[in-house]
């Protein structure tokens, strides 16, 4: 495998100085811009792994294995869309100096997929949705792979194990560290899974709706099933016929909860429910609301809590 391409400050200065656009040249040579560049392309601390991931859940899993022995950069920012995110110049610099790059796949990071495929010619890029051993499911309606693979803790461990093995090959002097960190994460998730199952088993089996089919891995893991999906594709608004069909289903099935996420549109919900009372909970599927220092198990713990609290409520 060829070495990852790097850019020196001198090369950047030459590129900036020879830029045909005066405005671009002036911006690139500003002191604060150069300082940012130096910080971005400076080599990592000795023995530190330089990892780039597409979304926060992958960072959470990776940090469970790295445990302070590496730096992890997330491309898609808080509340950003993995489907439509386009990279910034600083993202490209981070990718150029990365030891390892992780992303889910074309079904999730649609705009980034082509970039990742190109990077894979010279760098180690792992498309996680292709890992052997993953539990996979298909989205309702489209039949395509559901890309929300991290919402099943078993898949989280498959990803963690793949990272452990890659790091052990690339950094064999710390193989025992990667294995110990994996074991610690595995034991925590095994214990948490028992607690999560007990909590969910205590929740009444009531009808509920989802804005779109995004929590299927979580539902399959804990033997839950939604009764209504508002939108098969959250990027397409429903037509009149679909609105009438969904309203009919809501009237007949009377869901007590509606689970939404960051992609949901309140005006669409209002149109479809048409004054029918329902508790709404926005699930944090990407870890946008996690407190600093929280890990992957906390992401799933919050999901279990929000899901259970909504179904257990009695305010409608």
Supply Rg: 22 Å
Oligomer: single chain
Give me the count of strands.
8
Neighbour order of strands in the largest sheet: 2-1-3-4
Reported CATH architecture of the largest domain:
3-Layer(aba) Sandwich
- Bin the strand percentage: 5-15%
**Alpha-carbon distance between the termini?**
60 Å
Tell me the count of domains: 3
Average of per-residue pLDDT values: 87
Q: Which secondary-structure class do the elements indicate?
A: alpha/beta
Shape summary:
globular
Level of helix content?
A: 40-55%
Task: Give a written overview of the molecule.
- The chain is of the alpha/beta class and 316 residues long.
- The protein has three domains: 1-42, no CATH class; 43-194, 3-Layer(aba) Sandwich (Rossmann fold); 200-312, Nitrogenase molybdenum iron protein domain (Rossmann fold).
- It has helices spanning 9-17, 22-28, 31-41, 56-66, 89-96, 113-119, 153-170, 175-201, 216-221, 240-253, 266-273, 296-312, and strands at residues 49-53, 70-74, 100-103, 125-127, 208-210, 228-229, 257-260, 279-282.
- The strands form two sheets. It has a four-stranded parallel beta sheet, sandwiched between helices. The protein has a four-stranded parallel beta sheet with strand order 6-5-7-8, sandwiched between helices.
- Strand 3 (100-103), helix 6 (113-119) and strand 4 (125-127) form a beta-alpha-beta unit.
- Helix 8 packs parallel to helix 12.
- The N and C termini lie far apart (60 Å).
- The relative contact order is 0.11.
């Amino acid at each position: 495998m060829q070495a990852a391409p790097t850019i020196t400050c001198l090369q950047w200065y030459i590129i900036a100085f020879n830029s045909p656009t005066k405005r671009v040249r002036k911006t690139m040579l500003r002191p604060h811009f150069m300082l940012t560049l130096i910080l971005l392309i400076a080599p990592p601390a000795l023995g530190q792994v330089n990892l780039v991931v597409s979304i926060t859940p992958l960072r959470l899993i990776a940090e469970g294995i790295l445990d302070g022995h590496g730096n992890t950069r997330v491309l898609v920012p808080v509340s950003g869309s993995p489907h439509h995110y386009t990279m910034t110049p600083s993202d490209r610099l981070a990718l150029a100096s990365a030891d390892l790059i992780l992303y889910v796949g074309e079904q999730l990071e649609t705009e980034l997929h082509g970039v990742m495929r190109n990077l894979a010619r010279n760098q180690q890029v792992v498309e996680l949705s292709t890992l052997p051993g993953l539990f996979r499911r298909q989205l309702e309606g489209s039949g395509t792979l559901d890309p929300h693979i991290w919402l099943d803790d078993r898949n989280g461990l498959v990803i963690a194990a793949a990272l452990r093995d890659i790091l052990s090959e690339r950094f064999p002097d710390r193989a025992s560290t990667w294995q110990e960190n994996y074991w610690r994460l595995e034991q925590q998730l095994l214990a948490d899974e028992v607690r999560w199952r007990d909590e969910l088993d205590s929740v009444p089996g009531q009808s509920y709706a989802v804005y779109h089919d995004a929590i299927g891995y979580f539902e399959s893991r804990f033997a839950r099933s939604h009764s209504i999906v508002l939108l098969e594709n959250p990027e397409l608004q429903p037509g009149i016929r679909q609105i009438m069909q969904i309203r009919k289903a809501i009237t007949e099935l009377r869901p007590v909860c509606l689970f939404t996420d960051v992609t949901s549109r309140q005006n669409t919900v209002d149109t479809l429910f048409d004054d029918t009372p329902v508790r709404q909970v926005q699930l944090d599927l990407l870890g946008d609301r996690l407190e600093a220092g929280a890990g992957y198990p906390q992401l799933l713990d919050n999901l279990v809590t929000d899901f259970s609290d909504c179904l257990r409520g009695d305010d409608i």
